[in-house]
Amino acid sequence: MQSTMDKKLDDFRWKVAGKELVPLVIGGMGVNISTTELALEAARLGGVGHISDAMMPAVTDDVHGTHFVEEKAREHRGSRKGADKSGVRFQVAQVAEATRMYVRETMARKKGPGLVFLNCMEKLTMANPKETLQTRLKAALDAGIDGITLSAGLHLASFALMADHPRFRQALLGIIVSSARALKLFLKRAARVNRAPDYVVVEGPLAGGHLGFGLDWKKFDLKSIFEEVRQYLKKEGLSIPVIPAGGIFTGTDAVEYMEAGAGAVQVATRFTVTRESGLPEDVKQRYFEAEEEDIEVNMLSPTGYPMRMLKHCPAVSRRVRPACEAYGYLLDGTGRCSYLEAYYQAAQNGGADQLRQVQKVCLCTHMRRYQCWTCGHYTYRLKETTRRNPDGTYQILSAEHVFKDYRFSTGHEIALP
């Protein structure tokens, strides 16, 4: 009998939507780190790629030359100098247009046997949480996305928000959870529209970016949560593929989960430094250079979720004036955001010295500028996956190289370029 160390991820398949896919999913990384190009490579190679709808109007401006950000900033320019952003709103028609344009252009270029999904964050409240979320979901379905992965929130109402869409029961729909309890709550609400998710991503404490844990994240481990979710679904008589995510660094890591009953595995960290990733080249080098002590989990995010990131990134040390008129993706329904409030309170109480003490970051501005370097726990291992150039920099890999290494490697080996 072949041992786990001798098996390849390619020995397994994820059977979904009438396809037999390579069971490798590249997670959705915003803002535009998971580019169209990265998602399309995953699909071409027979797996699943994600694009992210984080700050979609801004991303569409960058990629397709539209002017959604400029138009919104001009509409709300009267709010620039004050802390009151209650009148700042997104035009949902523009949000829909931006989403449809970006998704449609992506899907038009798709080749190969794989699929392209959209990662949709509930925590992007956009000053009108319910309406903007519904707009984003339906616009993606309009544009022909293969599937939608619901992230960063419980998404208790999300299925109901798109239940009347013609593709609601055709597109693949999944949810990211970090506990069986969260999944139980979601399934209870989803039952009201008689629609179970097509897959469940179980994200563990070693994942990148926002985490579904508190600062006690070290008390948890992915394998235990993965098994807890599998057993809960089995008890309920539900045959829903479970996809572990967070800390799966080698093909053998993936094989271990497939042997334990996973439908597929989701990975991201190793793809942040590929040519197809949206990170600027100099930032990719910072990821390669990172040591374990350079990575921290903090509470700097205005969302209230803990966030894993490189602690020396510009977002940690710089406090920028909120640009809610142009962005405002984390404004709640009353125009409030914890960074916005902390910024103006500090400015009133002492100016620059006080601003340096603000314990939040402006995710909108820093993410748009690629200055908030969120990352997975094993980012410090990226240097093990490539070679040094004569000038001391690290060789940038192709997404195809990394994908095939996950797919065909054995014994926890990593193929160098």
Automatic annotation (TrEMBL):
Pfam family, one: NMO
KW Repeat (keyword) present: no
UniProt keywords, alphabetically: Flavoprotein, FMN, Monooxygenase, Oxidoreductase
InterPro entries: Aldolase_TIM (IPR013785), NMO (IPR004136)
Flavoprotein listed as a keyword: yes
Any GO molecular function: nitronate monooxygenase activity
Highest taxon of the lineage: Bacteria
Matches recorded under PANTHER family: 2-NITROPROPANE DIOXYGENASE (PTHR32332)
Protein name: Nitronate monooxygenase
Lineage of origin: Bacteria, Pseudomonadati, Thermodesulfobacteriota, Syntrophobacteria, Syntrophobacterales
